[in-house]
Design brief:
This protein is an alpha+beta fold and 171 residues long. The protein has 6 helices and 3 strands. The protein folds into 2 domains: 70 residues, no CATH class; 75 residues, no CATH class. It has a 3-stranded antiparallel β-sheet, with no helix packed on it. α1 runs antiparallel to α2, α3 packs across α6 and α4 packs across α6.
């Protein structure tokens, strides 16, 4: 059973948001003169859109609907990584007090339990560079990464992206 959450008019089109037990669906109802059907652009997200369409039409407990929902859900690894990136952004937010240094983020979030007493240990640590990459990736997510999430892309970052150096001297 689906219930109507939102209904809005935009020109001649009606926009509906329907809530089911396992998913929400956004529909655009066009005037009767238009042909019935779905428009699915043939781009890199076509498989995700087709999975969403399949999930809309199938019974919520059918094998096809379960497979379609699985295609629309991030993997456990991706979910963990996104939670880590959000935690890093929270620590970097000046509104929550003094922004954390890369070293504090490494100690508290990315490598808990590791403590570098001497500066030379930290400067030469591979954990430092890994944390810098995560900080750069988290910052990239605030500028463009949210678009990847909204579009259904599971891309997190390019392997060639580098830290912009903005944290140099703060660790």
């Amino acid at each position: 059973m689906r219930s109507l959450l939102v209904e809005a008019e935009a020109g001649a089109d009606r926009h509906l948001v329907l809530a089911g037990k396992h998913a929400r669906h956004r529909l655009v109802v066009t005037p009767p003169a238009a042909r019935n059907g779905y428009i699915v652009p043939p781009d890199h997200l076509m498989s995700v859109r087709l999975a969403a369409l399949s999930a809309f039409h199938e019974h919520p407990r059918s094998r096809q609907a379960i497979a379609a929902r699985a295609a629309l859900t991030p993997s456990p690894y991706l979910r963990h990584r996104l939670v880590l990136l959000l935690a890093i952004l929270d620590r970097l937010d000046p509104a929550s007090g003094e922004p954390a240094t890369v070293r504090q983020i490494a100690r508290d979030l990315t490598f808990p339990g590791q403590d570098y007493d001497r500066a030379i240990e930290w400067k030469s640590s591979s954990n430092r560079r890994q944390t810098q990459r995560l900080v750069a990736e988290a910052r990239r997510m605030t500028t463009t990464g949210y678009r990847d999430l909204l579009s259904g892309s599971t891309r997190l970052s390019s392997p060639t992206e580098r830290c912009d150096g903005s944290d140099e001297g703060r660790d």
